[in-house]
Design a protein that fits this description.
The complex is a heterotrimer. By secondary structure, chain A is mainly alpha-helical. Chain A has 6 helices and 1 strand. In chain A, about 45% of the residues are buried. By secondary structure, chain B is of the alpha+beta class. In chain B, strands 3-2-1-5-8 form a 5-stranded mixed β-sheet. Chain B has a 5-stranded mixed β-sheet with strand order 4-10-9-6-7, covered by helices on one side. In chain B, strand 1 and strand 2 form a beta hairpin. In chain B, helix 1 runs antiparallel to helix 2. The longest helix of chain B is centred in the N-terminal third of the chain and has 33 residues. Chain C is an all-alpha fold. In chain C, strand 1 and strand 2 form a beta hairpin. In chain C, helix 8 runs antiparallel to helix 9. The radius of gyration of chain C is 26 Å and the shape is globular. Chains in contact: A-C, B-C. Chains B and C meet through helix 1, helix 2, helix 3, helix 4 and strand 7 of B and helix 4, strand 1, helix 10, helix 11 and helix 12 of C. Strand 1 of chain A pairs antiparallel with strand 3 of chain C. Bound molecules: heme-A (2 copies), dinuclear copper ion and copper (II) ion. One heme-A sits at the interface of chains C and B.
């Protein structure tokens, strides 16, 4: 008795889509060409879904970085020489700005979903400015501290304050560059209305959104940590 | 080639097992109360893992010996994707073995670390520094003088920062050799002046990092007299390999007498003790 | 039985309406070989970087052994090369320690974290899952070049520390030394870099030059190098995960992937979650060294008879937690790709399906997961709470279970096979043997009670050299011999391969088994000389024996390097599938075209290890072979139990 060893069609389709989010997530499922590449990125089939997955991975690793620093913070807070610093009041302003920017970027992202590129661009720009505002506010907060004579090496709390805000700011700066790039790219490619271009635009906007919300959440978390855990 | 390889594996297994079983190179005799328990646990573990090692290598060798493809043999191997039952069985057995080993492997640890030294222990402070050991004895009054890092001056031989004016410190002794009484718990209170060191005497079956900023308390109970080499087992810089001292276990009476001695006599006595040959009395070291 | 319908597949790219633009391969030399974004070129770049590093690391280990064995002997040549590090041709203790540190760092980071993952993973992960490149090719290129910068920074530590010690004078060197002296906390201590060991424990590594030679600029560069390396590894890991999750070709379900892909995937996850922690530690350590903070430096230290007043309250143990939280997963990062390659190669040359595919995948993940909860076993004696020590200890031993499962399955794969003893197969078998030999002593070290005595002795050295120093390296060797034909289109020379294998296999056992018994006697690690202690006297013959074995083994490696470069030009042409293997990389020409499949990405129909399929025309069925008539498969599979169903055989339901 002979049997054919092969796959049925159902299995094959399933096989393609075991990635995060199921078949249709992100609008990429089932769009893969028979040559295995999906979507129209120029090289080797880097499709839209990549940006989301990749961004989640980046977020995971950044989260680990701050988790490690948190554990260092908690452990160090139990040691000696800890001397609470008066956190600059400007941080509240920063917090307001970054939360606002998180809202605006969400508005932008949704506008793109609804195919309103002009609205998208406007809100993206606003988010960018708010982010910039956040950074400026953070720098001013540093200067407030410096004016009080509190420096990086003054005591562990101030060390962690400068370190955590600095690293967060650095990551946010990266985000700002990313947003600028997105803005520039959008202006250039907006006219391309092919399915692929639209998909890619959305994926990029989603990725930017993921990062930005994460930066927002991270800041709120750090703020709480610095304020509450003493 | 499979047979050659298989036979080679068996030969290597044999030589490896010999290297351990011959005991040409083995742990030195233990001198602490927990020593025999340590040695038993070590024997148990090394036997189990030794059997596992030999078993795995012999099995591997057998596969190579038995299942090499012969030239011009067109038959095929067994078309098997595995067997869940065998798999579970093996995993289950190893799990049980490992957990049993893990549980037994805590007993010596627990006996040393899960409770403080019993009252009446001989207390000695250990202050490590690059690249020297300082052992600080309370002297006749049994009280340790207060130490202050700001007072440390190696050039003036004040290695631990004793305040000479303080009464409790007056009779304190600081020497580079560790002398402890037999059959009594010894409690070491250890700290380091600069970087991390580690106090290590193979005969003690015991080792402990000495960490700056921490006061680590450990205790053990020597049950044999003798003189043993004490080494530093944590990288502490250039002369790590030379950070050497001695552990001398003496009878209780000698220890008591030692503690009562004034400084000059104390030092002389230590020097004298440190002249005895290494090892247990009569041991060929 | 006949419900399974054969599905003929059209492969022409045009079928997709020309939506995909294939860029032609780049033509300029720089774009093609230097700043290439082709994963294959990047893979080879990683491999070459690792080969360079392993060579340096190996030479360092030979120097170390020479110093340990003949501590007072004068080597005139050494005096010439290192006038400060080895005046009169006798190495100074700090020179020895810098060798140890650089040897460990090079080997762990720039060999075992690059070649198995960045090298083979980069080259073969996309091909094996049927993708045309990695998900983010530019990121891929970046991660290699960032790694490269890390290596350059590490090597520059040699130059700033050696200063005049290293007589091969470079013009840049003196400038570098000046720069270092000015901005990095001094240099020129006559060593070959820092002397803190690859674990770089503070406060030694944080105090700067007051703590002795080899604590100056070299340490700063060492930390910087590792921080850079962390970033590079993160970029790589992110790319690997995305590629694997999203770029598998049709039919390549997760459970049909070759085990190599699973191992690269698990490794990438480990890297993604552990490297940030080391990065955090590195940043804190740099701040302690240069910004006057006190994360790791406690107060009231008296270093070189001077009270340190700038620091207070830091905790040296904190570094150890951060380092080992990374460090333990790191050792699995080093070994997992080797396990993957070994499984792959064992199955291929035993001409048998892998035994217990599912269990292998499960075990790999279990090792990865548990690996995050056992870091404390490096710190039993650090002054950490004895109760957490106990918890770590129990968890540590359980990690042996998935490792044992893997070992059983390797044996099961060989059982009943028709083993072909090719060179890669020999190394894969060697991997199994060495992994068991090294792994089981981990179970001794993992018990708190026993670590009391064994910690930081040569017993530990024996343990980790067997697993990491050679098992993982054997995985790499196996990979090189196995995939060389695919990568370069030529076979490596078989005879030379055998001549390389036998002395290496015997040699590494001769080197590292005796180290265990030295550890029993009590020999401490990181000692530049064993002459200070009487109790070590009886190990001297062993020390000599080991060193002779090292010299023989190290010289044998020349055969490998020769074979590698010679075969690049003179090897026999390989053909597409010289090993009669099943996975997708063997479905394409050797070396593969620029986009791997020349536009024809195959569809996958079955699991990765279909060897010895009864009544198939050959004794192997490739993953992309559409359909073949096989008699009696269902009956057989029913006998074999549930395992096979998970392998992606859907011939019947
Ligand atoms: C690739 C690298 C690698 C791997 C895979 C491992 C695997 C393991 N390691 Fe190792 N280890 C290192 C690299 C590695 N290690 C390094 C580099 C160091 C030193 C770092 C430094 O200080 O510089 C170290 C140090 C180290 C220590 C600290 C020692 C000390 O400093 O005091 C400990 C303690 O628990 C340990 C334990 C283990 C265990 C339990 C495993 C387990 O995963 C092993 C599991 C494998 C097996 C168990 C074998 C196969 C099983 C069978 C054949 C089944 C049958 C067996 C029985 C029934 C017994 N390792
Ligand atoms: C991958 C890791 C690795 C490898 C391969 C090796 C290889 C060797 N090691 Fe190493 N070693 C470490 C990792 C490694 N080591 C670590 C982490 C430490 C601890 C450092 C510290 O304490 O801080 C250490 C420390 C260490 C010491 C201890 C020093 C001390 O504590 O005082 C010694 C002493 O003899 C030693 C010896 C050797 C020898 C003789 C070899 C070998 O030379 C044996 C022969 C070599 C081979 C068999 C490999 C050849 C490989 C190739 C040619 C690869 C080819 C390339 C490709 C396939 C791409 N090593
Ligand atoms: Cu003190 Cu090593
Ligand atoms: Cu570990």
């Amino acid at each position: 008795m002979a049997t054919t060893v092969t796959t049925n069609t159902r299995e094959r389709v399933r096989g393609t889509n075991t990635s995060l989010g199921g078949p249709r997530a992100g609008g990429n499922g089932g769009r893969r060409g028979p040559n295995g590449s999906n979507g129209g990125a120029p090289h080797g089939g880097a499709g839209p879904q990549h940006y989301r997955i990749g961004m989640w991975m980046a977020v995971a690793s950044i989260a680990m970085l701050f988790a490690a620093l948190t554990s260092a913070y908690v452990m160090r807070a139990g040691g000696s020489g800890w001397d609470d610093i008066q956190l600059p009041s400007l941080l509240w302003v920063s917090t307001g700005l970054i939360i606002a920017s998180s809202v605006t970027i969400e508005v932008a992202r949704r506008a793109l979903r609804r195919d309103e590129p002009a609205t998208y661009k406007r809100w993206l720009t606003i988010s960018l400015l708010l982010g910039l505002g956040f950074l400026i506010s953070q720098v001013l907060a540093w200067r407030q501290l410096v004016a009080q004579g509190i420096y990086l090496a003054s005591n562990p709390h101030s060390s962690f304050f400068y370190l955590l805000t600095g690293l967060h700011g650095l990551h946010l700066l990266g985000g700002l560059l990313g947003l600028s790039f997105l803005l520039w790219r959008t202006s250039r490619t907006l006219r391309d209305a092919s399915q692929q271009a639209v998909q890619k635009r959305r994926a990029l906007a989603d990725a930017a959104g993921i990062y930005w919300h994460f930066m927002d959440g991270l800041w709120v978390y750090l703020f709480a940590l610095l304020f509450l855990w003493r | 080639m499979g047979r050659v390889f298989g036979a080679l594996l068996w030969l290597i297994t044999l030589l490896t097992v010999w290297m351990f079983v011959s005991k040409k190179w083995w742990l030195p005799p233990a001198i602490t109360e927990h020593g025999p328990a340590y040695d038993r646990q070590f024997m148990l573990s090394i036997t189990i893992v030794g059997i596992a090692f030999a078993g795995a290598q012999i099995a591997l060798g057998y596969m190579l010996w038995r299942y090499g493809a012969r030239r011009d043999d067109s038959t095929r191997g067994i078309y098997s994707h595995g067997n869940n039952r065998v798999e579970m069985l093996c995993a289950g057995i190893t799990f049980v073995i490992f957990v049993v080993m893990a549980v037994f492997g805590q007993t010596v640890w627990a006996s040393l670390h899960f409770h403080d030294a019993p009252p009446g222990s001989a207390q000695i402070h250990v202050v490590a520094q690059q690249f020297q050991w300082n052992f600080h004895y309370p002297g006749a009054d049994g009280m340790f003088g207060h130490t202050d890092p700001a007072k440390i001056k190696d050039a003036e031989l004040n290695f631990v920062g004793l305040d000479e004016t303080e009464p409790a410190a007056k009779d304190d002794q600081v020497v580079p050799v560790l002398v402890v009484p037999i059959n009594r718990d010894v409690e070491l209170l250890m700290t380091s002046k600069d970087v991390t060191h580690d106090l290590w005497v193979p005969e003690l079956r015991f080792k402990q990092d000495v960490v700056p900023g921490l006061n680590i308390k450990v205790h053990f109970k020597p049950v044999k007299t003798g003189r043993f080499e004490l080494a530093c087992a944590e990288l502490c810089g250039q002369l790590h390999f030379k950070m050497k001292s001695f552990l001398i276990v003496v009878p209780e009476a000698d220890y008591q007498a030692l503690l009562q001695m004034p400084q000059a006599q104390f030092q002389a006595r230590i020097t004298e003790l440190n002249k005895q040959p290494l090892g247990l009395p009569g041991q060929v070291y | 039985m006949s419900e399974a319908v054969p599905m003929p597949e059209t492969h022409a790219p045009a079928a997709h309406g020309g939506a995909v633009h294939h860029h032609g391969p780049p033509t300029s030399f720089i774009r093609k070989y230097i700043f290439s974004i082709d994963h294959k070129v990047i893979g080879i770049q990683y491999l070459l970087l690792a080969m360079f590093s392993v060579f340096i690391g190996m030479v360092m280990s030979v120097l170390m052994r020479m110093n340990l064995t003949w501590p007072a002997k004068h080597w005139p040549l050494l005096a010439k090369i290192f006038p400060l590090g080895a005046p009169d041709g006798v190495m100074t203790p700090e020179f020895y320690l810098s060798l140890v540190t650089m040897h460990g760092t090079m080997m762990v980071f720039f060999v075992l974290t690059t070649a198995p993952q960045g090298g083979f993973g980069n080259y073969f992960l996309p091909i094996q899952i049927g993708a045309e490149d990695m998900a983010f090719p530019v990121l891929n290129m970046l991660s290699f070049w960032v790694t490269f910068v890390g290596l350059v920074v590490l090597v520059s530590a040699i130059f700033v520390e050696s200063s005049a010690a290293f007589s091969i004078s470079l013009n840049a060197k003196s400038a570098l030394a000046k720069f270092a002296a000015k901005y990095l906390g001094g240099g020129g201590t006559g060593t070959l870099g820092p002397i803190g060991g690859w674990t770089g424990y503070p406060p030694l590594s944080a105090l700067g030059q007051s703590a002795g030679p080899g604590q100056g600029a070299g340490v700063t560069l060492w930390i910087t190098s590792i921080a850079i390396f962390c970033v590079a590894s993160l970029l790589g890991a992110l790319n690997f995960i995305t590629t694997l999750l999203n770029m598998r070709t049709r039919g390549m379900s997760l459970m049909r992937m070759p085990l190599t892909c699973w191992s690269w995937f698990t490794t990438a996850i480990l890297a993604l979650l552990s490297f940030p922690v080391l990065l955090a530690g590195g940043i804190l350590l740099l701040l302690d060294r240069h910004a006057g903070t006190s994360f790791f430096i406690p107060g009231n230290l008296v270093v070189s008879d001077k009270l340190v007043t700038e620091h207070a309250g830091g905790s040296p143990i904190l570094w150890q937690h951060l380092f080992w939280f990374f460090g333990h997963p790191e050792v699995y990062i080093a070994i997992l790709p080797g396990m993957g390659a070994t499984s792959h190669i064992l199955s291929t040359f035993a001409r048998k399906p892998i035994f217990g595919y599912r269990a292998m995948v499960f075990a790999m993940f279990a090792i990865g997961l548990l690996g995050f909860f056992v870091w404390g076993h490096h710190m039993f004696l650090s002054g950490m709470s004895p109760y957490s020590g106990m918890a770590f200890s129990v968890l540590t031993l359980t990690i042996g279970v998935p490792s044992a499962i893997k070992t059983f399955n390797w044996l099961g794969t060989l059982w009943g096979g028709r083993i072909r003893f090719t060179v890669p197969m020999l190394f894969a078998i060697g991997f199994v043997s060495l992994f068991v030999a090294g792994g089981i002593t981990g179970l001794v070290l993992g018990q708190t009670s026993l670590d009391l005595s064994m910690h930081d002795t040569y017993f530990v050295l024996g343990h980790f050299h067997l697993v990491m120093g050679v098992a993982a390296i054997f995985g790499m060797f196996a990979g090189v011999y196995f995939w060389f034909p695919k990568m370069f289109g030529r076979m490596m020379n078989d005879k030379l391969g055998y001549i390389h294998f036998w002395p290496t296999f015997i040699g590494v056992y001769a080197i590292f088994i005796p180290m265990h018994v030295m550890g029993l006697v009590g020999m401490p690690r990181r000692y530049s000389s064993f002459t200070e202690y009487t109790f070590l006297n009886k190990t001297h013959p062993l020390v000599m024996f080991v060193t002779i074995a090292v010299i023989v083994t190290a010289f044998t490696q020349i055969i490998f390097f020769f074979n590698f470069f010679w075969s690049l030009f003179k090897g026999k042409p390989a053909g597409d599938n010289p090993w009669e293997a099943t996975t997708l990389e063997w479905a394409i020409p050797s070396p593969p075209p620029h986009d791997n499949f020349a536009g024809n990405v195959p569809t996958v129909y079955r699991g990765a290890y279909e060897f010895a399929v009864p009544d198939a025309p050959d004794d192997y069925v490739m993953q992309h072979t559409p359909d073949i008539t096989v008699a009696n498969v269902p009956a057989r599979m029913a006998e074999e139990g549930g395992e096979s169903a998970g392998n992606g055989h859907n011939g019947h339901h």
